[in-house]
Model the fold of this input.
Amino acid sequence: MIVVTGAAGFIASCLVTRLNAANFNDIVVVDNFAVERKLANLKGKRLREYVDRNEFFDWLDQNHEQVEFIFHLGARTDTTEQDKAIFDLLNVEYSQKMWRACCQYQLPLVYASSAATYGSGTLGYSDDDALLPLLRPLNPYGDSKNDFDNWAVQQAEKPFFWAGLKFFNVYGPNEYHKGRMASVIFHAFEQIRQHGSMTLFRSHNPDYADGEQQRDFVYVKDLVEVCFFLMQNRQHSGIYNLGTGEARTFLDLTLNTFKALDRPADIRFRDTPEDIRDTYQYFTQADMSKLRSIGYDRPFTKLEDGIDDYVRNYLVPGLYL
Done:
Protein backbone atom coordinates (compact mmCIF):
# COMPACT_ATOMS: atom_id res chain seq x y z
CA MET A 1 0.00 0.00 0.00
CA ILE A 2 1.04 3.58 -0.66
CA VAL A 3 -0.17 6.31 1.70
CA VAL A 4 -0.86 9.80 0.37
CA THR A 5 -1.80 12.52 2.86
CA GLY A 6 -3.63 15.66 1.77
CA ALA A 7 -4.94 13.34 -0.93
CA ALA A 8 -8.06 15.31 -1.86
CA GLY A 9 -5.98 18.44 -2.38
CA PHE A 10 -4.34 19.84 -5.49
CA ILE A 11 -0.90 18.23 -5.69
CA ALA A 12 -1.65 15.01 -3.85
CA SER A 13 -4.66 14.14 -6.00
CA CYS A 14 -2.51 14.59 -9.11
CA LEU A 15 0.04 12.26 -7.56
CA VAL A 16 -2.67 9.65 -7.01
CA THR A 17 -3.49 9.88 -10.74
CA ARG A 18 0.19 9.33 -11.59
CA LEU A 19 0.37 6.32 -9.29
CA ASN A 20 -2.78 4.82 -10.81
CA ALA A 21 -1.28 5.32 -14.28
CA ALA A 22 1.65 3.15 -13.18
CA ASN A 23 -0.82 0.54 -11.88
CA PHE A 24 -0.37 1.38 -8.20
CA ASN A 25 -3.95 0.98 -7.05
CA ASP A 26 -3.62 0.05 -3.35
CA ILE A 27 -3.53 3.69 -2.31
CA VAL A 28 -4.65 4.82 1.13
CA VAL A 29 -5.80 8.43 0.96
CA VAL A 30 -5.59 10.58 4.09
CA ASP A 31 -7.24 13.98 4.49
CA ASN A 32 -9.92 15.97 6.24
CA PHE A 33 -12.73 14.61 4.08
CA ALA A 34 -15.27 16.93 5.70
CA VAL A 35 -14.07 19.59 3.25
CA GLU A 36 -16.45 18.45 0.53
CA ARG A 37 -15.35 20.93 -2.14
CA LYS A 38 -12.15 18.93 -2.65
CA LEU A 39 -13.69 15.47 -3.00
CA ALA A 40 -14.16 15.73 -6.77
CA ASN A 41 -10.37 15.47 -7.06
CA LEU A 42 -10.57 11.79 -6.05
CA LYS A 43 -13.55 10.85 -8.18
CA GLY A 44 -12.81 7.93 -10.50
CA LYS A 45 -9.46 7.11 -8.95
CA ARG A 46 -8.55 3.57 -7.92
CA LEU A 47 -8.13 3.63 -4.14
CA ARG A 48 -7.96 1.12 -1.34
CA GLU A 49 -9.16 3.15 1.64
CA TYR A 50 -10.07 6.60 2.94
CA VAL A 51 -8.61 7.49 6.36
CA ASP A 52 -9.36 10.68 8.29
CA ARG A 53 -6.19 12.57 9.13
CA ASN A 54 -7.02 12.52 12.85
CA GLU A 55 -7.32 8.72 12.78
CA PHE A 56 -4.32 8.02 10.60
CA PHE A 57 -1.72 7.15 13.21
CA ASP A 58 -4.04 4.65 14.88
CA TRP A 59 -4.65 3.18 11.43
CA LEU A 60 -0.89 3.03 10.76
CA ASP A 61 -0.26 1.19 14.03
CA GLN A 62 -2.60 -1.53 12.80
CA ASN A 63 -1.54 -1.61 9.14
CA HIS A 64 2.12 -0.56 8.93
CA GLU A 65 3.32 -3.97 7.75
CA GLN A 66 1.35 -3.50 4.52
CA VAL A 67 2.59 0.03 3.82
CA GLU A 68 5.35 0.43 1.24
CA PHE A 69 5.73 4.20 1.00
CA ILE A 70 4.33 7.42 2.48
CA PHE A 71 3.87 10.71 0.64
CA HIS A 72 3.07 13.32 3.27
CA LEU A 73 1.68 16.21 1.23
CA GLY A 74 -1.07 17.33 3.59
CA ALA A 75 -0.55 20.75 5.18
CA ARG A 76 -2.14 24.10 5.88
CA THR A 77 -0.88 26.12 2.91
CA ASP A 78 -2.58 29.51 3.28
CA THR A 79 0.22 32.07 3.14
CA THR A 80 -2.12 34.80 4.43
CA GLU A 81 -3.05 32.93 7.62
CA GLN A 82 -1.40 34.55 10.64
CA ASP A 83 -2.38 32.09 13.39
CA LYS A 84 0.92 30.40 14.20
CA ALA A 85 -0.81 27.78 16.37
CA ILE A 86 -2.58 26.32 13.32
CA PHE A 87 0.71 25.90 11.47
CA ASP A 88 2.44 24.47 14.54
CA LEU A 89 -0.28 21.84 14.85
CA LEU A 90 -0.78 20.84 11.23
CA ASN A 91 2.58 21.55 9.57
CA VAL A 92 5.10 20.96 12.34
CA GLU A 93 3.72 18.66 15.03
CA TYR A 94 1.76 16.41 12.65
CA SER A 95 4.82 16.10 10.40
CA GLN A 96 7.04 15.29 13.37
CA LYS A 97 4.63 12.54 14.35
CA MET A 98 4.74 11.23 10.77
CA TRP A 99 8.55 11.25 10.80
CA ARG A 100 8.70 9.31 14.08
CA ALA A 101 6.21 6.75 12.79
CA CYS A 102 8.28 6.23 9.65
CA CYS A 103 11.36 5.71 11.80
CA GLN A 104 9.53 3.28 14.06
CA TYR A 105 8.12 1.21 11.22
CA GLN A 106 11.03 1.66 8.76
CA LEU A 107 8.92 3.35 6.11
CA PRO A 108 10.29 5.63 3.37
CA LEU A 109 8.91 9.17 3.43
CA VAL A 110 8.58 12.04 0.97
CA TYR A 111 7.12 15.22 2.44
CA ALA A 112 6.17 18.65 1.11
CA SER A 113 8.23 21.67 2.05
CA SER A 114 8.01 25.01 0.23
CA ALA A 115 9.95 27.76 -1.51
CA ALA A 116 8.28 30.07 1.03
CA THR A 117 11.14 29.02 3.32
CA TYR A 118 13.47 31.26 1.29
CA GLY A 119 11.74 34.44 2.33
CA SER A 120 12.88 37.48 0.34
CA GLY A 121 15.58 35.41 -1.37
CA THR A 122 18.50 37.45 -0.06
CA LEU A 123 20.44 34.23 0.56
CA GLY A 124 19.56 32.79 -2.84
CA TYR A 125 17.63 29.62 -3.59
CA SER A 126 20.07 26.83 -2.89
CA ASP A 127 18.77 23.72 -1.11
CA ASP A 128 22.09 23.22 0.69
CA ASP A 129 21.41 22.03 4.25
CA ALA A 130 23.94 24.51 5.60
CA LEU A 131 21.64 27.40 4.66
CA LEU A 132 18.56 26.06 6.46
CA PRO A 133 19.23 27.71 9.85
CA LEU A 134 19.92 31.06 8.14
CA LEU A 135 16.66 31.30 6.16
CA ARG A 136 14.08 33.88 7.24
CA PRO A 137 10.62 33.20 5.77
CA LEU A 138 8.18 36.08 5.39
CA ASN A 139 5.05 34.52 6.90
CA PRO A 140 3.94 31.90 9.45
CA TYR A 141 3.37 29.32 6.71
CA GLY A 142 6.97 29.63 5.51
CA ASP A 143 8.17 29.57 9.12
CA SER A 144 6.36 26.28 9.74
CA LYS A 145 7.90 24.62 6.70
CA ASN A 146 11.38 25.88 7.57
CA ASP A 147 10.94 24.83 11.19
CA PHE A 148 10.21 21.29 10.13
CA ASP A 149 13.05 21.16 7.59
CA ASN A 150 15.51 22.27 10.26
CA TRP A 151 14.10 19.79 12.76
CA ALA A 152 14.29 16.93 10.24
CA VAL A 153 17.96 17.37 9.29
CA GLN A 154 18.92 17.60 12.97
CA GLN A 155 17.34 14.30 13.94
CA ALA A 156 19.67 11.49 14.94
CA GLU A 157 17.04 8.94 13.96
CA LYS A 158 15.78 9.20 10.40
CA PRO A 159 13.67 7.05 8.07
CA PHE A 160 15.92 4.80 5.97
CA PHE A 161 14.92 7.00 3.03
CA TRP A 162 13.39 10.45 3.21
CA ALA A 163 13.08 13.52 1.03
CA GLY A 164 11.68 16.98 1.68
CA LEU A 165 10.57 18.79 -1.47
CA LYS A 166 10.60 22.59 -1.61
CA PHE A 167 7.74 23.23 -4.02
CA PHE A 168 8.01 26.49 -5.92
CA ASN A 169 4.96 28.05 -7.67
CA VAL A 170 2.93 25.02 -8.70
CA TYR A 171 0.07 25.28 -11.18
CA GLY A 172 -2.18 22.83 -12.95
CA PRO A 173 -5.38 20.77 -12.78
CA ASN A 174 -7.25 20.08 -9.52
CA GLU A 175 -6.51 23.44 -7.85
CA TYR A 176 -10.04 24.85 -8.35
CA HIS A 177 -10.86 24.62 -4.62
CA LYS A 178 -7.90 26.69 -3.39
CA GLY A 179 -9.57 30.11 -3.67
CA ARG A 180 -7.13 32.94 -3.15
CA MET A 181 -4.24 30.46 -2.98
CA ALA A 182 -4.86 29.05 -6.47
CA SER A 183 -2.28 29.83 -9.14
CA VAL A 184 -2.34 33.10 -11.06
CA ILE A 185 -3.07 31.03 -14.19
CA PHE A 186 -6.29 29.76 -12.65
CA HIS A 187 -7.29 33.29 -11.64
CA ALA A 188 -6.38 34.61 -15.08
CA PHE A 189 -8.56 31.99 -16.72
CA GLU A 190 -11.51 32.91 -14.52
CA GLN A 191 -11.10 36.66 -15.01
CA ILE A 192 -10.57 36.44 -18.76
CA ARG A 193 -13.57 34.19 -19.16
CA GLN A 194 -15.80 36.50 -17.10
CA HIS A 195 -14.49 39.95 -17.99
CA GLY A 196 -12.16 39.60 -20.97
CA SER A 197 -9.29 41.07 -18.97
CA MET A 198 -6.82 40.13 -16.24
CA THR A 199 -5.70 42.28 -13.31
CA LEU A 200 -2.23 41.72 -11.86
CA PHE A 201 -0.63 43.12 -8.73
CA ARG A 202 1.21 46.36 -9.26
CA SER A 203 4.89 46.36 -8.29
CA HIS A 204 5.79 48.20 -5.09
CA ASN A 205 9.47 47.52 -5.61
CA PRO A 206 11.41 50.04 -7.73
CA ASP A 207 13.58 47.23 -9.11
CA TYR A 208 10.60 45.61 -10.87
CA ALA A 209 8.14 47.12 -13.35
CA ASP A 210 4.46 46.22 -13.06
CA GLY A 211 3.99 42.61 -14.13
CA GLU A 212 7.72 41.95 -14.24
CA GLN A 213 7.77 40.22 -10.87
CA GLN A 214 9.29 36.78 -11.46
CA ARG A 215 8.57 33.35 -10.06
CA ASP A 216 9.64 29.81 -10.81
CA PHE A 217 6.36 28.33 -12.09
CA VAL A 218 6.34 24.51 -12.15
CA TYR A 219 3.64 22.36 -13.75
CA VAL A 220 2.06 19.89 -11.35
CA LYS A 221 2.64 17.05 -13.83
CA ASP A 222 6.40 17.62 -13.51
CA LEU A 223 6.18 17.75 -9.76
CA VAL A 224 4.47 14.36 -9.47
CA GLU A 225 7.06 12.86 -11.84
CA VAL A 226 9.74 13.84 -9.33
CA CYS A 227 7.72 12.24 -6.52
CA PHE A 228 7.41 9.06 -8.57
CA PHE A 229 11.15 9.09 -9.32
CA LEU A 230 11.99 9.35 -5.61
CA MET A 231 9.68 6.46 -4.78
CA GLN A 232 11.62 4.31 -7.24
CA ASN A 233 15.09 5.64 -6.39
CA ARG A 234 15.63 5.62 -2.65
CA GLN A 235 19.38 6.07 -2.41
CA HIS A 236 19.82 9.77 -1.65
CA SER A 237 17.90 11.24 1.26
CA GLY A 238 17.70 14.99 1.79
CA ILE A 239 15.90 18.23 1.04
CA TYR A 240 15.46 19.14 -2.62
CA ASN A 241 14.17 22.14 -4.53
CA LEU A 242 11.33 21.40 -6.90
CA GLY A 243 10.89 24.11 -9.48
CA THR A 244 12.10 24.38 -13.07
CA GLY A 245 15.22 26.43 -12.50
CA GLU A 246 13.87 29.24 -14.69
CA ALA A 247 12.08 32.33 -13.37
CA ARG A 248 9.36 33.82 -15.57
CA THR A 249 7.34 37.00 -15.24
CA PHE A 250 3.67 37.31 -14.42
CA LEU A 251 3.28 39.05 -17.77
CA ASP A 252 4.66 35.92 -19.48
CA LEU A 253 2.17 33.83 -17.58
CA THR A 254 -0.82 36.06 -18.29
CA LEU A 255 -0.06 36.61 -21.98
CA ASN A 256 0.20 32.86 -22.49
CA THR A 257 -3.14 32.34 -20.75
CA PHE A 258 -4.78 34.80 -23.17
CA LYS A 259 -3.09 32.93 -26.03
CA ALA A 260 -4.36 29.55 -24.84
CA LEU A 261 -7.87 31.01 -24.75
CA ASP A 262 -7.48 32.60 -28.18
CA ARG A 263 -8.34 35.98 -26.67
CA PRO A 264 -6.69 39.37 -27.20
CA ALA A 265 -4.57 40.45 -24.24
CA ASP A 266 -6.06 43.03 -21.86
CA ILE A 267 -3.92 43.33 -18.71
CA ARG A 268 -4.56 45.81 -15.92
CA PHE A 269 -2.94 46.44 -12.54
CA ARG A 270 -4.02 47.08 -8.96
CA ASP A 271 -2.14 47.63 -5.73
CA THR A 272 -0.90 44.54 -3.96
CA PRO A 273 -3.18 43.95 -0.93
CA GLU A 274 -1.73 45.47 2.20
CA ASP A 275 -1.97 42.21 4.18
CA ILE A 276 0.61 40.57 1.90
CA ARG A 277 2.50 43.58 0.50
CA ASP A 278 5.35 43.47 3.03
CA THR A 279 5.83 39.73 2.60
CA TYR A 280 5.53 39.54 -1.18
CA GLN A 281 8.26 37.67 -3.06
CA TYR A 282 9.39 39.52 -6.19
CA PHE A 283 11.71 36.81 -7.47
CA THR A 284 12.10 33.07 -6.99
CA GLN A 285 14.19 30.65 -8.99
CA ALA A 286 15.04 27.15 -7.85
CA ASP A 287 18.60 25.90 -7.92
CA MET A 288 17.92 22.43 -9.34
CA SER A 289 21.48 21.10 -9.31
CA LYS A 290 20.98 18.92 -6.24
CA LEU A 291 18.05 16.99 -7.70
CA ARG A 292 19.85 16.65 -11.00
CA SER A 293 22.91 15.30 -9.19
CA ILE A 294 21.01 12.23 -7.98
CA GLY A 295 19.94 11.25 -11.48
CA TYR A 296 16.70 13.07 -12.21
CA ASP A 297 17.14 13.97 -15.86
CA ARG A 298 13.64 14.57 -17.24
CA PRO A 299 13.12 18.04 -18.74
CA PHE A 300 10.65 20.36 -17.06
CA THR A 301 7.67 21.63 -19.03
CA LYS A 302 8.12 25.08 -20.54
CA LEU A 303 5.68 27.61 -19.15
CA GLU A 304 4.09 28.14 -22.58
CA ASP A 305 3.44 24.42 -23.02
CA GLY A 306 2.21 23.89 -19.48
CA ILE A 307 -0.28 26.74 -19.67
CA ASP A 308 -1.55 25.59 -23.05
CA ASP A 309 -2.13 22.05 -21.75
CA TYR A 310 -3.71 23.22 -18.50
CA VAL A 311 -6.07 25.74 -20.10
CA ARG A 312 -7.12 23.83 -23.22
CA ASN A 313 -7.32 20.31 -21.78
CA TYR A 314 -8.52 20.93 -18.21
CA LEU A 315 -9.84 24.42 -17.48
CA VAL A 316 -11.88 24.93 -20.67
CA PRO A 317 -13.59 21.51 -20.59
CA GLY A 318 -13.79 21.53 -16.76
CA LEU A 319 -11.83 18.30 -16.33
CA TYR A 320 -9.71 16.96 -13.48
CA LEU A 321 -6.38 15.19 -13.65
Notes: Residues 80 and 207 are 24 Å apart (CA to CA). The chain has a mean pLDDT of 95. The two ends are 21 Å apart (CA to CA).
